[in-house]
Every structure is written in C-alpha cells, then in structure tokens.
Amino acid sequence: MSCIHYKFFSKLDYDTVTFSGFDISLCDLKCKIMRKEKLKAANCDLQISNAQTKEEYTEDALIPKNSLVIVKRIPAGGVKATSKTDVTAPQSHKIPGAASFRSRTEPVSRTSEAVRKNPISPFFSTHCTEF
C-alpha cells in the first residue's frame, strides 16, 4: 500500500491516507481526506500544496506516493476578494437624507470628535476619579 502524509495548515501533526499505486490524483486525495476528516463537500473545498516546495497542486495533478502535503479548507465557492471601501446600499434601497453605511475599517476618531463637541459630554468623563 502507498500513502500520502497530510496535515491541515493549523495543525502540528501529520495524518495518513492510503491508496494503491505509485501516485494519486488530486481529486481522489481530496475525497479520501474529506471522508477521513468527516467533511462535507457542500460546505468547503480543500486547497492542497506540497509541504516542502509550497507549490499548490492543480486539478489535473498526480501526487506521488509518500509525499507530504499541506491542506487548507476554503469556502465551497472559492475564496472571495475583500475590499476596504465604503459599503453603500443600491440606489433602489437608498433613503433620502440617510447616511451611507461605512466599513469596519473606518477610524473611530470621527466618533470621539463628535462626542467631544457634544455639550453634555463633560458630564460623562472617561477618567474615573473615585473608586
């Protein structure tokens, strides 16, 4: 029996899947790993790369026996690009006079400046003088 040693990117130890032959297709390796780890194909896909060269295997790759591979779980639809731009509602959903939504990357300093200009803010000091 031949084997491939795999480990998930976040784990320390390698596991093993066995097969017959000199190599295994990437698709067959993914199926064996998902079956062994009890993962569902509908929830995620696996990205598999060579542990020594860090080269990612493509769909038509044959992985030789006794290889060490690193496995990463990725969303079933693939990895989506993220952007750090403002999030705005579509024109059909905009409410006249309403502000647009901001992403989480917006600095908080604007909020604290608005609080400092508020006439009631001196009564709510952030520094505690009594315990």
UniProtKB/TrEMBL annotation:
<keyword id="KW-0479">Metal-binding</keyword>
<keyword id="KW-0539">Nucleus</keyword>
<feature type="region of interest" description="Disordered">
    <location>
        <begin position="82"/>
        <end position="111"/>
    </location>
</feature>
<dbReference type="GO" id="GO:0006511">
    <property type="term" value="P:ubiquitin-dependent protein catabolic process"/>
</dbReference>
<dbReference type="InterPro" id="IPR014891">
    <property type="entry name" value="DWNN_domain"/>
</dbReference>
<dbReference type="InterPro" id="IPR033489">
    <property type="entry name" value="RBBP6"/>
</dbReference>
<dbReference type="GO" id="GO:0005634">
    <property type="term" value="C:nucleus"/>
</dbReference>
<keyword id="KW-0863">Zinc-finger</keyword>
<keyword id="KW-0862">Zinc</keyword>
<dbReference type="Pfam" id="PF08783">
    <property type="entry name" value="DWNN"/>
</dbReference>
<dbReference type="GO" id="GO:0061630">
    <property type="term" value="F:ubiquitin protein ligase activity"/>
</dbReference>
<feature type="compositionally biased region" description="Polar residues">
    <location>
        <begin position="82"/>
        <end position="91"/>
    </location>
</feature>
<dbReference type="GO" id="GO:0008270">
    <property type="term" value="F:zinc ion binding"/>
</dbReference>
<dbReference type="GO" id="GO:0006397">
    <property type="term" value="P:mRNA processing"/>
</dbReference>
<protein>
    <submittedName>
        <fullName>Uncharacterized protein</fullName>
    </submittedName>
</protein>
<dbReference type="GO" id="GO:0016567">
    <property type="term" value="P:protein ubiquitination"/>
</dbReference>
